[in-house]
Amino acid sequence: EAKRTGGNHCTMFEPAMRERAARRADIESDLRLALVEEQLFVVYQPVVGLREDGGTDFSAGVEALVRWQHPARGVVPPFEFIQVAEESGLIGALGDFVLRRACRDFMAWQRELGSGAPRLLAVNLSRAQLAQPDWPATVQQILDLEGMHPSQLQLEVTESLAAQDQQVQDRLHELKAIGITLALDDFGTGYSSLSSLHQLPVDTVKIDRSFVCQADTSQHHRVLIEATVKVAQSLGMNTVAEGIETEAQAAAVRGQQCAKGQGYLFSRPLTSPALLDWLRAALPAAA
Ligand code: C2E
Ligand code: MG
Ligand code: MG
Ligand code: MG
């Protein structure tokens, strides 16, 4: 079967592959310039607390998400350049930029909003960042420089990353020793399972959007969310439902005792000034 179609595949995909390689090279050289010319910026998506009384805590936290304002192509989404950054070694500089900028913005919100400011900042991590032995020290330096407490920072890693070799595991434990918490991103999409959760040094489990988007319509997905929340709770971990788009999905994940949620229902990712407006609008009128 593979042999019969193999020849065709080669001739059909060769031009596409060449095109992809050329596009990748373009992105890489443009990205190199983008880092120097400060075309990258960071947006923030609120992570809200889903209170047991049915209320919503709008100041629970935010997730930092990188964006690229390309001079010719407009705003480029991360899925188009994160992998290129990883493969070309640019992810270190990109990751440090995002972390620094996000910590600085986070501290500005504290000054601006006091108790109404987000309490937790989540930043996505790449494997290459963890490969640098001195990276935990770099994070500590950034926190010190910005005057941010380590417990206010949460680093997000994927299942495949968290379950990696001993070197990565050691680094994650070093970060935890600083007082930073770790979240397992996109849970349910990787290869690890509920039974291996206890082996990962994470404090929070983020349930992937692919489960959450069917929380209200599929009993199967609801059961999976319920099981994830129960296991996480029994291990002393928090849970966040990603990608909540409707009230029905929010009600469904609340019903499964999921403590936090994130998604377009509450807010799309926002620039720092837009986030401040959003938070101010959410605050009680007296504040
Ligand atoms: P992620 O960490 O799982 O981030 C959540 C993604 O889901 C974001 O996409 C967010 O905009 C999107 N999202 C949030 N709520 C909803 C919703 O209700 N519906 C839908 N359809 N989507 C929703 P984004 O910003 O395009 O980022 C994609 C991925 O790129 C992130 O997934 C993360 O893995 C990666 N990424 C983003 N910023 C960074 C970064 O600074 N460093 C690294 N290493 N990776 C990053
Ligand atoms: Mg994330
Ligand atoms: Mg995610
Ligand atoms: Mg995702």
Automatic annotation (TrEMBL):
Domain EAL, residue spans: 24-283
Domain of life: Bacteria
Protein known as: Bifunctional diguanylate cyclase/phosphodiesterase
Gene source species: Massilia aerilata
Record lineage: Bacteria, Pseudomonadati, Pseudomonadota, Betaproteobacteria, Burkholderiales
